[in-house]
């Protein structure tokens, strides 16, 4: 079940209160340690001068925006590349689920009992289960329902009951606000501001606590709670919007076998699509828009906090707020990004000089958020007047941040994922008595990592500019007003490109 388009002022107030309460409650958790995130690989002397890099990237992003304003629209269609027997797909998904369940069980046991310097829990949970799932989602769509421990537990209980669980419907007023809280708590604070990722026992405790909370929501409100309240389910589903691969279930047709019997063969059809298509569709509601903005702020903070400038800021703030310096900077990032999103939305509306389009779309917001084949064709629910128009513009514009946030997250974390994937493979085959020594170092030379990171970041911004062009066209039906509305977004993305490259290049 997907988010609906409800929300309004009451939803925003609830979201702000929830975020504020969460940040305050997690202050003590942040005090466990200062900043404990080190996923990236840095290069002391970048192969390209920083000024040349920034100027070139800014020209590429800005030039793309200008080209879109005066040239033809980018392609938005998709190309079928093949299909798979649904039975084969089902067998693969079941196998993945079984392996993921066994791996999580082994991680829990390792985290609670192992005395190794690096436990299996540390190798699996943060780099593979959490960060690796985002890399997969960005490439082929979200794998979360297959590997999520709480989804597996819910499905097992539902199978035992012979029906879907839940005693009440999921409250629409909650939307994705619980997921926003979970993202701030687990990724923003626990991962980036504490030593939990480096402690197997603490990792298992956090995983168990989060799983218990999600399963309790599932038992109370059914599967919809797992889809809408789970921060990771929402994160990977949204990341899947930028994936160049899409799927569609085909019921198939009757075929006659050699014995004269008829069979109904369902298939899964695979398509290729431009990566900006999904990000040109509006998000379901204000809560989902806030989730995207918070995700962008969090991943930017994750990278920025590793720079020497951040170290100086932490030292300065440490003299004032002590161990809460990292939390104070993170709250500053959240506030800046959320305020920036509101200001950019206003700037876009003012530049366009007109309210959002009121010509209704062909789908509901639930289908828009679902990411189905129909939802991949950008349409939108009918806009209303007043604050509803503003919300609709925000839902469109926030979606265009997805390519940037996803590209930066992949760029920042893929070395971390790759190194731990090799460790995971070594331990897995070692457990059955087969020695294996892998060295990902040759593929992770600092210059190679830096080059791929720059390519991913700039590529993500280019995709975002294209998505923003399409989004403003569908928000403001008059072409001239749409072009004017696109200008503030393009300027923001040029500035964000410069900031992202600074984070990568900064010592």
From TrEMBL:
Residues 364-377 have a biased composition (Basic and acidic residues). It comes from Halorubellus litoreus. It comes from the Archaea. The chain crosses the membrane at residues 48-70, 91-112, 124-144, 177-196, 202-222, 283-301, 321-344, 393-411, 447-468, 489-506. Residues 354-384 are annotated as: Disordered. This is Uncharacterized protein. Keywords: Membrane, Transmembrane, Transmembrane helix. The keyword Lipid metabolism does not apply.
